[in-house]
Amino acid sequence: HAGLLAASGAEGRRLLADAAHHWRFDVQEAVVEGDGVAAFGVLAGRFPGGTQPAELHRAGHDTPLAVQVAPHYPLSSRSPDACLRVDGAQLDDVAPPAVLLPSGCNSGQADR
Q1: Which domain holds residue 70?
Q2: What is the CATH number of the domain that holds 68?
Q3: Cα–Cα distance between 68 and 103 in angstroms, integer?
Q4: For residue 55, which of 45, 42, 69 has the smallest C-alpha distance?
Q5: What is the pLDDT of residues 8-34, one digit of tens each?
Q6: Is residue 42 part of a domain?
Q7: Cα–Cα distances in Å, from 80 out to 40, 59, 65, 74, 108?
Q8: What are the beta bridge partners of residue 53?
């Protein structure tokens, strides 16, 4: 689909550039690690790398929790499976079906 958007002119390229900053991480398992949490799950989109501000959307909570996340292991372009370190949250906060989104995304993507 990226080729089609790129070929559709300035608007398509703008959409691709905007999409490059969006990602979603669906937590499937979480464990305590040091003073943070290691979250195992599925990453959709392109994580920009390094430590990033994120929103932790939790079942039964209307307001997302502001956290910092970073890849715990190098990310692979061949698999959506990933492990992110989550700082600023407790294990119970990160329990499945929690969803992590880029800070300020607020697009309703956490809705299932």
Answers
A1: 23-102
A2: 2.40.30
A3: 9
A4: 69
A5: 777 766 666 665 668 999 999 999 999
A6: yes
A7: 11, 22, 24, 12, 21
A8: 68
